[in-house]
Predict the 3D structure of the following.
Amino acid sequence: MNKKDAQNAATASDCNKDSEERLRRLVDILQHPSESIQEFLDYALKQAIELTESQIGYIYHYHEDRKEFVLNTWSVEVMKDCKVEKQETTYKLDKTGIWGEAVRQRRPIVINDYQERNPLKKGCPKGHVPLTNFLTVPIFKNKKIVGVVGLANKETDYDESDILNITLLMKAVWTVTESKKVEEALRSSEEKLKTIIETSPDGIAISSMDGMVEFVTAQSVAMWGYDSPDEMIGRNILEFVHESYHEKAIYFMTEMINGHLTGAAEYLMVKKDGSLFYCETNANVLKDKNKNAIGVLHIERDITERKKLEEELKDLAIKDQLTGLYNRRKIDQVLMKEKDEADYLAVIMADIDMFKLVNDEYGHLVGDQVLMEIAAILTKGIRKTDILGRWGGEEFIIICTDTDLEGATVLAEKLRELVAAHYFNGVGKKTCSFGVAQLRKDETIDELLLRSDLALYRAKERGRNRVEQEICRANTIKK
């Protein structure tokens, strides 16, 4: 592996490590035993501080209607070092200095030299913990800012990776926080049943033992998109469940009634207008004073957003954060799978020509934009059966299933022309070089990749902006 390949591999490895570390910390937060939401957010802040290698931090709730911040938690280090005589817990937005800019500008704010003069700063009160640098990120829910997290005093500069990590981490934490609020309300159901029925964000329904709906709350009516409880009462609960989940629903209800199953189950539900949503239902048998079963209580929660978040977290593990393409780990998995299943398998390696000059002359933000545009061009140009990924740095890979060398070469030439014809704003024309190789009998994936790399190098050596085939066997080349 030459120096360039090593650098590309290191970059891909760093991205993977970032995703893995963020996922690890999120799992750690979710599994941490917390007696209250306050403890949960305290621990989440601790993990955010460690993830960004900061020294101090805070979490504030924010009320957009009142334009008001309410302190939720400071890090332990702040409480130790803060000598401010009168420590406020509530702040109006118009009274805040630069730390309120995340709300005013509705975006993350980074200051890597806090001592530098800045007209947005209003100064710190006497006894405030000294700051060297600062990152603050707004937390959104339904396009409203509901909170802000602030971190400070990292030994190195805050960068885009810190912003992305904290944005994704706190989005997940806030979603769980909202769920925990609901769970805490439900735990007090014995004392406040009437209040919960009237105010719970979850839907509540009661059915007969044979599944006929007898009672629904306004939340259930709204969740399924009906206008009144009368439209739901008297109908079988299976009418509200997507047919693909009928068998599961019947099995779960039967086993629950017979005392063999407890807990929640997830179903795909059908609204009045035919649209679908995911619902988590916790069903329990209702009994009279003689312990005779008289019905079933259903507590229903729309978990569509949670399911989306789960999919996003899965994507983080297998997709490149910048381009949204499969990352190297996922591509390795696909290659191994296709090697065993495909009749023919070819690989195209693509590398942006003279890409370093783009970063050097225009900066990394422009370089990132070029990478994203080329990813979009390649995505549009490949076939439905092809698999596209970012191999690392400015290098991409296309896995061509059931395709021989000539077919892959034709595709590579098409992609080369598409890239060469594209005009990149602020940069102008850019080109890519392509290397193509087909898997041979008894050849390993590593040998296939080596030959495609050699073909790519040949394209570079012969003037760039061209497609080359590598026909030699890898073991012959090594000799």
